[in-house]
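FORM 7B: Structural annotation worksheet

SECTION A. Query
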Amino acid sequence: MPNVISNTTPLQYLPQIGQLNLLPRLCGTIRVPRAVVDELAVGHSRGISLPHVAACSWIDVCDVDPDSANSFPILGGGEAEVLALARTIPDALVLLDDAEARRTAFDLGLAVRETLGVLLDAKRAGLIPAATPLLDQLHGCGFRLSPATRRTIIELAEE
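SECTION B. Predicted structure
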């Protein structure tokens, strides 16, 4: 199993649709850099229902060298630290939704999965009966999902 490192977005949206449990079931332990913990704390302060990292035994919080994270100045703090951490861990798989962060990860030769990919993996593993209702819920939570991407995910999920 790859070493999974998550950005904030999967930890933000999966709980909102009642599917946070998919991450440990699919990935086991997930690493998150401190910037992701900080971003989740900001969400808590705004009243968003997000997981408390300390309550998730399957999340391992990791420190990241600030100089390494600063090598990605166009990315947000969470994305930059995810990529900096991934560069130090063999067989890393990064969970990222931001398009620029994904492009940078691909340029670095990192394996990437998006929140939607997590749902597809869960469907293929039999952990969820269907992806389509969850796509609807994600959209209702403000998750950006173009009609073309929605159609593609539904097709890949064979629904």
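SECTION C. Observations
The two ends are 27 Å apart (CA to CA). The chain has a mean pLDDT of 94.

SECTION D. Sign-off
Analyst initials: ____
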